[in-house]
Amino acid sequence: MNTAKFNIGDVVRHKLFPFRGVIFDVDPEFGDTEEWWQSIPADVRPRKEQPFYHLLAENEEGEEYIAYVSEEHLEHDTSGMPIRHSQVEEFFVLYDAERHSYEMPSEFIN
Q1: What is the pTM of this model?
Q2: Which residues are CB-contacts of 81 (< 8 A; sequence separation ≥ 6)?
Q3: 82, 87, 89, 92: which one has the fewest Cβ atoms less than 10 Å from its Cβ?
Q4: Given a cut of 60, is residue 15 above it in pLDDT?
Q5: Residue 104, CB half-sphere, CA atoms under 13 Å: how many?
Q6: Neighbours of 85 (CB within 10 A)
Q7: What is the DSSP string of the chain?
Q8: C-alpha to C-alpha distance for 3 and 73, rounded to whole angstroms
Q9: In what order do the strands lie in the sheet with 19-27?
C-alpha cells in the first residue's frame, strides 16, 4: 500500500505543465483505464504504483477542469492564492493561506 504525500484539501501544482488545483480525492495507485495511461507521452508517463490525485484544477488562462495526476508530477503550491474553480465550495468550506490548503465541512470528516 502506498502512503500519499498529499492530503485532501492541499493546493498543489503540476511540475511539468502550467496548472494548479486542490485535491478532492486520492487513489492509492493508478485507477484509470489502460487507454488513458497509454495516451500519456512515454517520456513523461508516470509509474502506476504510486498515489494518484483527483484535482479541481485551473490553468493559467483560468480554464477549470478535473485533473488526474500522479504524485511524482505534483508539488505543493505555495503561492498563497486560493483556487478559483467553481466547484471548490461543493467540497470545501475555508481556505487557509498559511497552510496552502482547504478545510472540508465537518460533516464530511469521520
Answers
A1: 0.92
A2: none
A3: 89
A4: yes
A5: 14
A6: 22
A7: -PPPSS-TTBEEEESSSSEEEEEEEEESS--S-HHHHHTS-TTTPPPSSS-EEEEEEEETT--EEEEEEEGGGEEE--S-PPP--TTHHHH-SEEETTTTEEE--GGG--
A8: 16
A9: 64-70, 52-59, 19-27, 11-14, 74-76
- Residues sharing a CB contact under 8 Å with residue 47, sequence separation 6 or more, in sequence order: 70, 72
CA 15/CA 13 separation, integer angstroms: 6
Domain positions in the chain: 11-108
pLDDT digits 0-9 by tens, 58-86: 999 999 999 999 999 999 999 999 999 99
Name residue, grid cell 487507454. 35
Question: Among candidates 59, 78, 57, 75, which has minimal Cα distance to 67?
Answer: 57
What are 26's three cell numbers? 486520492
